[in-house]
Amino acid sequence: MQRKNLGTVLTMIACLIFGNLSFAAPTTETVHATLTSPPFVPEATHRDHAVKVIVELEVRELEKEISEGVSYTFWTFGGTVPGSFIRVRQGDTVEFHLKNHPDNKMPHNIDLHGVTGPGGGAASSFTAPGHESQFTFKALNAGIYVYHCATAPVGMHVANGMYGLLLVEPPEGLPAVDHEYYVMQGDFYTVGKYREHGHQDFDMQKAIDERPTYVLFNGSEGALVGDHALKAKVGETVRLFVGNGGPNLVSSFHVIGEIFDKVRYEGGVHEQENVQTTLIPAGGAAIVQFHLDVPGSYVMVDHSIFRAFNKGALAILKAEGPEDKNIYSGKEVDSVYLGDKAASAAPVEEARAAQATGKLTIQQQIKAGEARFAGTCSVCHQNNGAGLAGVFPPLAGSDYLMADRLRSINIVLNGLSGQVTVNGNTYNSVMPPMSQLNDDELANILTYVRNSWGNKGDSVNAADVKQVRESTKRPQGAAH
Ligand SMILES: [Cu+2]
């Protein structure tokens, strides 16, 4: 506030001195930009005049979790993926400082799409580890802009998470809303399969072939679910700044159960209304806005839907408040849409940590299995394992399940069809293969199933699953 008043006074003095009421008068006012980590957005500038803004951004190469039990070395602007959010006002002169932390291994630079000038700053910002570069640009155009690293191999730097957003506010600012959040999609390429545990390296060939292992919002499968879900209340308006870092994929951004009241598509100044899904190009961004009328979990996805359910492109906004049965009669969004995000990931993490030290107990497996059963098997066999008469056989008290441990692994890995008799009742249907589950997940789920609802069995371990998986013949080109 103080700063604003001072700025206004300075501008007035400048106008008096130069006898000119335009904002083009030279300004001596300098502010340091406050950057935020995702999913947060800096406060509005609340300025009615241009100033000089100093931005300091540090590149860090950091090992972080990309999925539960999977680590990856991200290259980041400011320590996060996406990088720190930068907010300035149209007309501001930005003095940009790019620092490359001394522990880093690689040189980096920055190309800001909000910069007018060849390379968008890239040539002037090439920075070796332990060094700093500085360049200045004028934010001529209002809009929401992607920034990214452009050091060779450019694709690799972007694929490792080197992108973020720069908002250049229009002179009048953006209309007030209750919440502003920062969400950015990216595609990732690891040598190991989706959710394969341990440290995973970047896979250049998969990146060239555009076959991502993960498609994520905010750089990690867990970034915006569970305790980290975005929050709002019924009656409030939410604005999302949604970027797409790529490097390869175009995003079909959609919020299940919401209609965007307004979209500044392609990050420009025009507004489209009542939009279901908005296309966000790689290296592009949009501003979407919606009003929350009823409570519940709203699932954000890339509507290229396998990416949401099998590569991680899923985030949640949780709205709390009173129901309005006139607008929506129904139940809370169910496990079909939340998938295995319906349950907490904590027991899964605990089981993995215990296994790493060779101390995994059957109780830990059961808990982890329960968390993954929800949204994976429960859609058909039901949460209580009772199945549906004549359609899905029961797992609770199932003689068929308990008769043969290895066969049960085989059923989950490879599916089941043809006639089966469970507890004297016959079923003739099809269960799809669940081979997307990794060895630990599958072992834990089966341990849970074989020790719940009256079933009493021994534990199923990951080594058994691995063995069954390896001994199964699959058509050429089929996964896992
Ligand atoms: Cu870089």
Report the structural category.
alpha/beta
Strand content of the residues, in percent?
25-35%
* Sheet with the most strands, sense and barrel status: 6 strands, mixed
Mean pLDDT: 90
User: What's the end-to-end separation, in Å?
Assistant: 58 Å
The global form is globular
The Cα radius of gyration reads 26 Å
Q: Helix content range of the residues, please?
A: 10-25%
Report the count of strand segments.
Answer: 23
User: What is the count of DSSP helices, taking H or I runs of 4+ residues?
Assistant: 12
What low-confidence regions span 5 or more consecutive residues with pLDDT below 50?
1-25
Ligand catalogue: copper (II) ion
Please describe the topology of this protein.
Elements: H1 2-18, E1 30-32, E2 52-67, E3 70-77, E4 86-89, E5 93-100, E6 111-112, E7 132-138, E8 143-148, H2 154-159, E9 163-169, E10 179-188, E11 198-200, H3 204-208, E12 214-217, E13 230-233, E14 237-246, E15 251-256, E16 260-264, E17 272-275, E18 277-280, E19 284-291, E20 296-302, H4 306-310, E21 314-320, H5 335-338, H6 346-356, H7 362-373, H8 378-381, H9 399-403, H10 405-414, E22 416-422, E23 425-431, H11 439-449, H12 462-470
Parallel strand pairs: 1-2, 2-5, 3-11, 4-9, 10-14, 13-21
Antiparallel strand pairs: 2-3, 5-7, 6-8, 8-9, 10-12, 14-19, 15-18, 15-20, 16-17, 16-19, 20-21, 22-23
The protein binds copper (II) ion (CU).
Provide a descriptive summary of the structure in words.
The chain is an alpha/beta fold and 480 residues long. Helices cover 21% and strands 31% of the residues. It is built from 12 helices and 23 strands. The strands form 5 sheets. Strands 1, 2, 3, 5, 7 and 11 form a 6-stranded mixed beta sheet that branches. A hairpin with a 2-residue loop joins strand 2 and strand 3. Helix 6 runs antiparallel to helix 7, helix 7 packs across helix 11 and helix 10 (405-414) packs across helix 12. The longest helix has 17 residues, at 2-18. Residues 1-25 have low confidence and may be disordered. Residues 75, 108, 149, 151, 157, 162 line the site of copper (II) ion. The site of copper (II) ion has 6 residues, from loops.
